[in-house]
């Protein structure tokens, strides 16, 4: 199996069987995002503990396979990380999607890097970039406790 097939399999698996779907109990941060062009909608629920660790990260919503897979992968990779590490992972992911850069953080193991890199191909499809990044921008909004919903038409 080549890398492209592996990436497709990861996206299909997460799109069909998303991880961490539903509203977590005791969340203390949340945000809503939507992509009006594709119809993707996501509500991110985040529970930070007293040590500012991501204790829980779940989501509800609907959308295309890329959007759901990206959100599912995000929840798996960020859960259990510190607030600062989570922000760093998000920044590296958004940079990867925009510029095609590699994920360099030492905060993810090789399997986790493969999962996140499975979304790198969307850079070739500008309309899909917003699908892949919606939940990541929504997580940032939740972490920063912003009041306004995330809209892909106003996020760069």
How does this model look, in words?
Helix 3 runs antiparallel to helix 5. The termini are far apart. The chain has helices at residues 3-16, 65-78, 83-99, 110-117, 126-143, and strands at residues 29-35, 40-48, 54-62, 150-151. The model has no long low-confidence stretch (mean pLDDT 93). By secondary structure, it is an alpha+beta fold. Helices cover 46% and strands 17% of the residues. It has a four-stranded mixed beta sheet, covered by helices on one side. It has a single domain (3-151), classed as Sufe protein. Chain: A.
Please give a quick description of this structure.
This protein is of the alpha+beta class and 156 residues long.
Q: Any key phrases for this structure?
A:
single chain, Sufe protein. Chain: A, alpha+beta, four-stranded mixed beta sheet, 156 residues, globular, 4 strands, 5 helices
